[in-house]
Amino acid sequence: MEEIAPLPGNIVEIHRKDIPSRTRRGMLWYSYHYILQVEYREPGASIPRRITSEPYLRPIQNDLASTRVNVYPLPDGWHFILDDFDLKEYPGAPGPFPYEKKPPTYPLFFTTVFTLFCLYVLYVLFTV
């Protein structure tokens, strides 16, 4: 990246993509991917070019303080690196995008304890 000059860009949109997948036991769950739409101007171009980022696994819009980002176009012309995001000083600061809560994930320990508790209750009900 030291050899490539950065081009200033702006984050225009953030899309959430819900990707369904199945566990080994056949249960359906969704993983959320956040994709940025960034516009930047190439030198000598009259209109901005819009690119799509690689998916992020966490809601990056919660950490952004502004829509400014630097775009590093790679020599092949098809791939880009997004860097130098303006991040918030503290998590509660207002940002340019609406805050999105991350869906709750329950650790395996709590799920296992809850399942064992339910099985114990069923055992007690049917053995009495």
Written account of the structure:
- 16% of the residues lie in helices and 34% in strands.
- With 128 residues, it is of the alpha+beta class.
Features:
single chain, 128 residues, alpha+beta, 5-stranded antiparallel sheet, 1 helix, 16% helix, 34% strand
Question: What's the topology here?
Answer:
Elements: E1 7-22, E2 28-40, E3 49-52, E4 68-73, E5 80-83, H1 108-127
Question: Brief description of this entry?
Answer:
By secondary structure, this protein is α+β, with helices and mostly antiparallel strands. 16% of the residues lie in helices and 34% in strands. The longest helix has 20 residues, at 108-127.
Radius of gyration: 22 Å
Q: What does the average pLDDT come to?
A: 87
Oligomer status: single chain
Q: Biggest sheet, open or closed, and with what strands and sense?
A: 5 strands, antiparallel
Task: Name the helicity range.
Answer: 10-25%
Total helical elements: 1
Q: Give me the side-by-side strand order of the main sheet.
A: 3-2-1-4-5
Strand content: 25-35%
Poorly predicted regions are none
Structural class: alpha+beta
What's the helix-strand series? EEEEEH
Q: What global shape is seen?
A: elongated
Measured distance between first and last alpha carbons: 71 Å
